[in-house]
Amino acid sequence: MNYFSIILRTIFFYIFTIIIFRIMGKKEIGQLSIQNLVVSLLIAELAVLSIENYEKSIWFAIIPIVIVLVLEILIDHVSLKSDKFRKLIDGKPSLIINNGKINYKEMKKQKYTLDYLLLELRNSGIRDIRDVEYAILENNGSLNIFEYEFLKRNTFNPLPLVLDGKIQYETLKYINKSFKWLITYLSDNNIELEDIFYAFYKNDKVYVIKMNELEM
Fold it and tell me: pTM value?
C-alpha cells in the first residue's frame, strides 16, 4: 500500500474541499437544506473514493466535484431569479402552530411527529402549546418558535409581504389581508412591485425596502 500517496491525497482533498465550500458560500456551513446535504454528501463521497483508490488518477474525483460545484452555482443563480424554482428545490417553510393550535395536516404532510414537536418546545422552555403564537418549520428542518407576549398579546413579529419582488400570499392570508389591499397600498405610495427587495408587516404597518436603497 502506498501510504505516502494516501497522505498526500488526504491533505489535498482537505484543502480542496474547504476551497469548494468557500466558493459555494457560507449558507453551506449552517444547517443544511436537502440540496446542500446532497451536495455535501456527494463531495465527501467522491473525495473518499479518490483517497481509497489511490492507484487511479486524482482527476477522477476532481472533475465530478467541479461539475457538482458548477451545478450548485447554476441552481443558486436560477433560484435567485425564480421563486417557483427555489420552492421546487428547497421547498417552503411550513406553519406548524398557528395561534396556539397545532396544524396536524401540515405536520402529517411534512412527516413531523408530535413527539418531536413537543421535544422542540421543551428545549425552548415552553410547557404549553397555547403559549405559542406561531411556529414555523424552516426548509433546513429547524423550528422557529414565536411566543405570545405577556397576557397573550400578539408579538407582532415582522412578517414578509414581498421577497425579491414576489408577493408572499401565505402572509396575506395569515394577517387577513387581500392581494388588492397590498396593491392598493403600493399604488397609493407610488411603489412598483418589481422595485421592492423586501417588504414586511409589523404593528399593523407595512415597511418597504427598495432595490435602489441597498448598498451595492
Answer: 0.50
